[in-house]
Write a structure and sequence with these properties.
The chain has 139 residues and is mainly beta. It has a single domain (8-132), classed as Copper binding periplasmic protein CusF (OB fold (Dihydrolipoamide Acetyltransferase, E2P)), CATH 2.40.50.320. The protein is 0% helix and 46% strand. The chain contains no helices and 11 strands. The chain has strands spanning 8-9, 29-31, 37-39, 44-55, 58-63, 65-66, 71-73, 80-93, 104-111, 117-124, 130-132. A 5-stranded mixed beta barrel has the order 4-5-8-10-9. A 3-stranded antiparallel sheet has the order 1-3-2, with no helix packed on it. The chain starts with 7 loop residues before the first strand and ends in a 7-residue tail after the last strand.
Length: 139
């Protein structure tokens, strides 16, 4: 099974990859079925995820599809995300103890050779965004 494992960044992309000497982002990205850009190993990526498992420093969740600034869709075809909190991880909005099952987070970091997001930034979005079960739900 090919896990997306945090390879996705927000719709619209991040601009240029954050690796020196890299080619433009479009040469390193492809779009998955959710309309979300997927980056290859070694590049900075971001994903908005609903956490389903938190075991020590390992996070597992489902990739959410952005509908608006405050509404994210839980797609019927789920894309798993696996991320690891590192010693460099900072929680820039919220508190580390808020990282728990059911919480919506934006994870930022670098994809390793095993397709796991080595997370260096966590933004707690629960309370700021809503997760919709179906497309087109209004906030």
């Amino acid at each position: 099974m090919d896990h997306l494992s945090g390879n996705a960044c927000r719709r619209g992309g991040l601009g240029s990859p954050r690796r020196s000497g890299a080619r433009p982002a479009d040469e390193h990205c492809r779009h998955n079925g959710l309309g979300v850009r997927v980056h290859f190993t070694g590049f900075f990526s971001e994903a908005v995820v609903r956490l389903e498992s938190v075991k020590g420093n390992e996070l597992k969740g489902t990739l959410l599809e952005r509908q608006s600034d405050t509404v994210y869709l839980l797609p019927s075809e789920r894309t798993p995300v696996i991320a690891v909190l590192t010693s460099d991880t900072s929680v820039v909005m919220g508190k580390p103890q808020e990282i728990a099952v059911g919480v919506v987070v934006q994870l930022g970091g670098t994809i390793d050779a095993n397709h796991v997001l080595q997370t260096n930034q966590v933004v707690i979005l629960t309370g700021y965004v809503r997760v919709s079960q179906k497309q087109g739900d209004s906030p």
